[in-house]
Amino acid sequence: MNLVKVGFLGLLAAVALLAARAYLKEAEPRVLASASLPRTGQAGGARGFVQMPLPDGLPGDRVVIFAPADCPSAAAQRADALARHLDKAGIPYQHSQEASFSHLASREEADRVAAVMQGGIPVVFVRSRARANPAVEEVVAEYRAGGMR
Question: What top-level branch of life does the organism fall under (predicted)?
């Protein structure tokens, strides 16, 4: 009887692993598709920024840089360098460490937000378009392009 219980539990564990594997394989393409949004065309634009809602409470009239404050990491240093460059170029910007999105219209929009926000630091918003870890030149070009899309 003990052997039957062990066999049954082993079979149950194998079925659970196979089900989890199948679920993850099914979910994976959607996340990867969102994370690898095209760098050209309507979805990504020439500079790789994608259309996204602004985080709650943040203005759309300036560049918003999401990165940890006073952090020695390379990512935080890139954010600081971006801020210095924007300042020299006369482009208004603001630093932020937190973002919340309480009014997402669809699952696709939520996937797009997750893909960008989980990308490299800094995450940069220019009006209602965002990109993870863009080059300084890309941010400046996106800002100067304004509403011309």
Answer: Bacteria
Contact indicator for 95, 79 with CB cutoff of 8 Å: yes
User: Per-residue pLDDT tens for 69-119?
Assistant: 777 788 888 999 999 999 999 999 999 988 888 888 899 999 999 999 898
Amino acid in position 144: R
Both structure tokens of 125: 């918003």
96, β-bridge pairs: 66
Side chain identity at 69, as an amino acid letter?
Answer: A
Measured from the Cβ of residue 108, the count of other Cβ atoms closer than 10 Å reads: 12
Which domain does 24 fall in, by range?
1-36
Structure tokens at 55: 């985080």
List % helix, strand, coil for the chain (3-state, nearest 5). 50, 10, 40
**30 and 45 share a domain?**
no
In this structure, what token pair is assigned to residue 140?
Answer: 């400046």
- Collapsing DSSP states into helix, strand and coil, what is residue 100? coil
Q: Are residues 31 and 97 in the same domain?
A: no
